[in-house]
Design goal:
single chain; 191 residues; mainly alpha; Serine Threonine Protein Phosphatase 5, Tetratricopeptide repeat; 2 domains; two-stranded antiparallel sheet; globular
Amino acid sequence: MVEEGLPEGVFESAEEGDAQGVAAWLDEGGGVDARCAEQDRATLLIVAAAGGQEAMVRMLLQRGASVNLQDSDGVTALMDAVGNGHTTIAQALLDAKADASLQTTNGITALMEAEQQEHTATAQLLRRHAKRQMAEAEAAVVHATAAAPNLQEICADPNPNPLTVTVTVTATATATVTLTLSLSLSLSLSL
């Protein structure tokens, strides 16, 4: 659950890179994913990324900040990082599993923002990331497809063993692959 109630002063501390001030607020019970009502419901991570505060971003990620939260306009920390040309922060967010396919309320993605702002390095980073995700998804599909004939033989057996195996592979345009393996086993004992 995302908490409300991020004080504007703490928000400004994150924007300015005041790690001690933010850490003290968090240590006193402040929520790492709290939102600032006065600042479009943005989080500490969003403002730190926008402000180029790499050490702050890393500290917030280590403390469990949710990397894909969006403010009231749909902006994420990744979008603000790339929109301001903060390539190393964008890489840290991608490493923390930031979803580059998320869109603002106007339909803008992180890549579109980087290109609009003419931040070539961040746009290239996002393209490389997408290409790597696609390659990983394709490899997972190939692996699952290679395993499928053996599984089909098991499932097509006219005298089936009580073991049933089902594999479902789904790949989406964002290169997400879901592999589901479900096993059923029935066992009977006679004494």
